[in-house]
Specification:
9 strands; mainly beta; Jelly Rolls
Length: about 100
């Protein structure tokens, strides 16, 4: 289980050849994806998000409460490929940082 602080987001990235499934336990998450992060979806409590092999960005939708979710991949290897792309929305100064998403 992962807990993300309020008002945080990852930078644009992908996980190599690993697909991800995220189960939202508490709160809401916004996901952006695409070559310029041009697509957007919101997931709430008890929703699943399938993340294929594409650039994406995870965002805690709340500026007041932590996001709690479960992340599953078919391999335990923490592959994170950070991307420098011109995005529709650039990440803010607060980054989503944890053992699998280190500070750039």
């Amino acid at each position: 289980m992962t807990e993300k602080e309020t008002n945080v987001k990852t930078g644009a990235h992908h996980h190599g050849e690993l697909e991800s499934v995220i189960y939202v336990v508490r709160r809401k998450v916004w996901m952006r994806w695409g070559e310029r992060l041009e697509f957007y979806a919101e997931a709430g409590e008890d929703d699943f998000i399938y993340v294929p092999l594409i650039p994406h960005q995870g965002i805690n939708a709340s500026s007041e409460e932590s996001l709690i979710c479960v992340l599953v991949r078919r391999d335990q290897e923490p592959i994170i490929v950070s991307l420098t792309i011109v995005a529709v929305e650039e990440p803010e100064a607060i980054l989503w940082v944890d053992p699998h998403h280190p500070r750039p």
